[in-house]
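Support request, please re-run this one:
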Amino acid sequence: MMSFILYFALILIIPIWAQSKVKSTYKKYSKVAISSSMSGAEVARKILDDNGLFNVAVEEVRGQLSDHYDPRSKVVRLSTDNFHGRSAAGAAVAAHEVGHAIQDAQDYAFLRFRSALVPVASFGSNISIFLIIGGALLQMTGLIFAGIVFFAFAVLFQLVTLPVEFDASNRAMTQLVSTGVIRNEEERPTKKVLNAAAMTYVAGALVALAELLRFIFMFFGMGEE
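Re-run finished. Output below.
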């Protein structure tokens, strides 16, 4: 019973810790101005243009840390604070999202794989828990196995997301330095923002993997009864 409580405490604490980390880091460095005095929108536009991605637009979107790249519309969307802000945090986030646009333009393999996984991963994350719970209640290992298979695709999506996000951050740092958006002494705070954001994806993947293992142990446990 104690191990069961500890397990659920961990899968709750890890994501909360990661979210708290990224929010506190972002808040801290959103108050640190960069020497180039460029807004997030200007940073994104400059990096896009320097890479020949004139067809990719930069737009403002509502919300906090709602920044993302839309590969279907070819649009980098930045939250209001990052779109207008001239901080290390804003520059880091903008460059990271442009990193995804560059991945898209260069046909980055992991990005393509992740995009291909979206339909089955979305379906799997929605249906798997119902199959697993139903199988456990009805003592039907077949249903649990089907749920595990579907959930495994959702976990695979989380795992594939890691190299996509880390690569985008690496591209962001390279572009910020090579374009002169930040100076040497500004690399450290920029990296901190990118690393904190990456931890949310790591936490998500760890929790998803832990859940998958729990379901697998449940399946084999029922088989032994």
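Residues 13 and 210 are 13 Å apart (CA to CA). Helices lie at 2-29, 40-50, 80-84, 88-105, 109-138, 141-178, 187-223.
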